[in-house]
Amino acid sequence: MPRTAQSSKSDILRTFAGSVANSGYDETSFREIAEELGISKGTIVHHYGTKERLLEAVHREYMDRRLREAEQILAATTGAAARLTALIAQLLVAQRDDRDATVTFAREIARFATMDLMADVRHMRSAYTKLVRGVLSDGVESGEFKDVDVDLVTLQIFGMCNWSWTWWGSRPQYSVVDVVEAWTTSLLSGLRTSRGPKKVDVASIVASVEAVVEQLDS
């Protein structure tokens, strides 16, 4: 069956993300992508123009997926500890199930973060950061969390999650539940007050996150 223009664009994005994730941006070329897909380099140029625009498209689609997921996850989850656990689970599910785009985003975003071309991506990153920060702030205000510096804790969470691609391979030794359980146990032990829940049901939260991701992908 011949490719439609939309399927061709999607195939280009997917193949480009896989190459950047495995080899890096500098080592990825239009020639390589065209050969793998059996299309001409001109088709890629027609759809995206430059390699920088192709990277921007991968990043923009990646952040759009994460934001749509996060909004539904937070709408369906109550309590600061559970909501924070759910966002951490979401980022790790992306590491497992959307790995090429996740690794491409993590390893290249700092390099291009100041480019004018990336303005929309920066805006979406800020919107996602605001969601995480908001969960922490709500926890502090409700008394569920201690009066911590929410900006620093937000950075801590992103540091844990965004760089897990460097050790959590495509066939991870640990499941998402394993990692979320370990991380949230230590994180929440430092955040929780006596008014907060002593434990969250990590397995159920991960399952709920997976259900949202599957629904949005279908």
From TrEMBL:
The keyword Nucleotidyltransferase does not apply. InterPro entries: Homeodomain-like_sf, HTH-type_TetR-like_transc_reg, HTH_TetR, KstR2_TetR_C, Tet_transcr_reg_TetR-rel_C_sf. SUPFAM superfamilies: Homeodomain-like (SSF46689), Tetracyclin repressor-like, C-terminal domain (SSF48498). It holds the Pfam family TetR_N. Residues 29-48 bind DNA. One of its GO terms (molecular function) is DNA-binding transcription factor activity. Residues 6-66 form the HTH tetR-type domain. This is Transcriptional regulator, TetR family.
